[in-house]
Structures are given as C-alpha cells and as structure tokens.
Amino acid sequence: MPTPVILDCDPGHDDVFAIWLAAGDPEIDLRAITTVGGNGKLAHTTYNARVVTDLAGIAGVPISAGADSPMVRLLAPAEWIHGDNALGGPELPQPAVAADPRTAVELIRDTLDEAGQPVTIVATGPLTNIGMFARIHPDRLPLIKEIVWMGGSTGRGNVTPYAEFNAWTDPEAAAMVLGTGLPFTMIGLNVTHQVLVTPGVMSRLGAIGNRTAAFGVELLNYFNSTYETDQGMPQAPLHDPVAVALVARPGLVSTVRTRLDIELRGTETAGATSVDLLGKLKRPPNASVATGVDIEGFWGLVEDAIRALA
Ligand code: BDR
Ligand code: CA
Predict the structure, then answer these.
(1) pLDDT band, very low/low/confident/very high, at 201 (cuts 50, 70, 90)
(2) Whole-number Å distance between alpha carbons of 289 and 1
(3) Domain of 166?
C-alpha cells in the first residue's frame, strides 16, 4: 500500500520536483499540499504550487496556504536562488486549480482526521506550518506517523556559514517540531549536495518528452545558473525530492539515530543544526539524520515519476 503523505513546501525550484515525485511515484499517496513563506512570499509559493500541479496534470490534491512568516523572525525570501517569484526561469501558465479555502493547519487537521491511519508529513521548507499545527492541535500529533524534513546540515550551511536556509528561516519552529517527540528525520545539505543537476541529468530529463519534463528543464537551467552565481556550484543540488525519495524507497537514503538540536541564540550561528554524531553531549538520540543517498537510484525515481505525469 502506498504511504499517505502530506507535503508541506515553499516552491521553489527543488520543491517542484518534490511535488512531482510525491504525485508521480506509485509508493506515495499524496493527500494534501500545504505552502509556507520561505523561498518566496506565501502568495508566490502558493501560486507556484498551483501552477506546477496543474501543469503536471495532478488532480484532486488540495493545496492550502499556511504561514506567511516565521514564528518570531522576519521572512527573508531566497530571491538570490529562486528569483522574485520563487520560480524564476520559465513563464508560468495561469493555473486552473484554485487554492483550497482552508488554512494549512486546517487542511492538515482534516487530512489526518480522514485518513484512518497515521500519515507521514514531508516538509521541504521552513517548519512554521508544522510548528503551528503542533501548537494548535497537540491532541492530534499521534495521527502523524513521522516527519521527514529537508533542512539543516551535519556540516556547514548555505545561507550563513553554519545554517541551512530552511532551518535558518524558522529555527524556533524547527525546535518546536523536534520537541514534539514525533519520529523525525532530517535530510540535510550533507546529503542533498550529492544529487547534482549534471548535464547527464538534464539530458535524461529532456528525453522524457512530456510537458512536465520540459518545464522542469527550464526550471533547472535557471536553478543551475543562480547556484553558480551564489554558491559557486554550476550543478545545483536538488535538495527537496530527497525527502520524498526516503519515504518512497527507504533503502535509497541511509540514516543514523543521533542527537539533533537547533541553535536558536548564536550570534553568528542561529539556525545551525547541531548533530552530535559522536555522542559527545551524552543526550538521548532524538532524530534520524541522513548520511548518504543512492544517487543513481534517486534520479531514476525522479525520472520515472515525471514520466508518469502529463
Ligand atoms: C532548501 O532551501 C530552499 O532554497 C530549497 O527549496 C531547499 O528546501 C535548501 O537549503
Ligand atoms: Ca524548499
């Protein structure tokens, strides 16, 4: 049976591939998409989610807008990577799909209530919506099977020397979600930087020949160019779908049980993820943290999913 999933995201180029993988892979039953301010303002990330689901022929998956800003900090959209509208590159077609009138928290609540079994939350942006849900509906947390998050790093960051963008944007939310004690898996930059958009990846995507793939190639051309300018990486890492891949095929991503803490107060390190791989802090493990990915297996999964779309 496919795994029921709620995808909480901030599209964003790589979030788009997370949506497509979740919708196109037979092992995932995508029940809802919720959006958050992150890579772009909430209006953009929500609009973009509608555009890319409609374009890919994904029907019947409600999309709800959530938090427009982090819990206690100001939003600083990643325009330097994703452009002014969070989806720089291709011209965006007008989506026929409307947003669901419920808030993200309400859609998560209803989806959990109606599922009849625990649901996995895959989060590929700042954890604001999930933190809000935990605060408003603590009684419903047992309805969540696990949380798999693209964020953080076991090493250095990408938005400050030690903080990754999703963790840095809303570290208080990340700490709150970790504090729920729900099973939590972090897929950080140490792993997502292994899945690079190489010329080979681009030509295999281009060869798929459907409109989703063609749009994806346009997205990735833009993504590679901003990654080269901002990060010195002409082959961008396609972070977010790795979180979906772990749920779809757990064997593709290796993880370790360890201690994870989020830095909230550092003068230079706010949003850093402290991953105690050597157990130096003598604190009980509270998370699974990704340490490796089957690169070829990952790209094969992404290609197959896109091939299954429009
Ligand atoms: C993360 O930040 C965003 O720019 C990407 O969408 C990804 O979720 C990588 O640091
Ligand atoms: Ca993202």
Answers:
(1) very high
(2) 25
(3) 3-307
pLDDT of residue 176: 98
Number of domains in the chain: 1
CATH number at residue 245: 3.90.245.10
Q: Look at residue 113 in the predicted model and tell me its pLDDT.
A: 98
Distance 141 CA to ligand 2 centre (A): 23
Q: Which atom of ligand 1 is nearest to the CA of 124?
A: 8
pLDDT value, residue 242: 99
Report residues whose beta carbon is within 6 angstroms of any ligand 1 atom.
12, 14-15, 39, 78, 81, 124-125, 150, 158, 164-166, 239-240
d(CA 310, CA 297): 22
Tens digits of residue pLDDT in 247-277: 999 999 999 999 999 999 999 999 999 999 9
Q: What does pTM read for this prediction? A: 0.98
Among 13, 82, 193, 239, which one carries the catalytic annotation?
Answer: 239
Residue nearest atom 10 of ligand 1, based on CA coordinates:
165
The pLDDT of 115-140, averaged and rounded, is 98
Instruction: Determine the residue of 7, 8, 13, 14 to mutate for testing ligand 1's pocket, defined as the one with the most ligand atoms within 8 A of the Cβ atom.
Output: 14
**Whole-number pLDDT of residue 227:** 98
Q: Given this model, what pLDDT does residue 284 score?
A: 97
Mean pLDDT to the nearest integer, 138-143: 98
| Backbone phi, psi, residue 104, to 5° | -60, -45
Quick one: tokens of 176?
A: 């709150």
Instruction: Check if 239 is active-site.
Output: yes
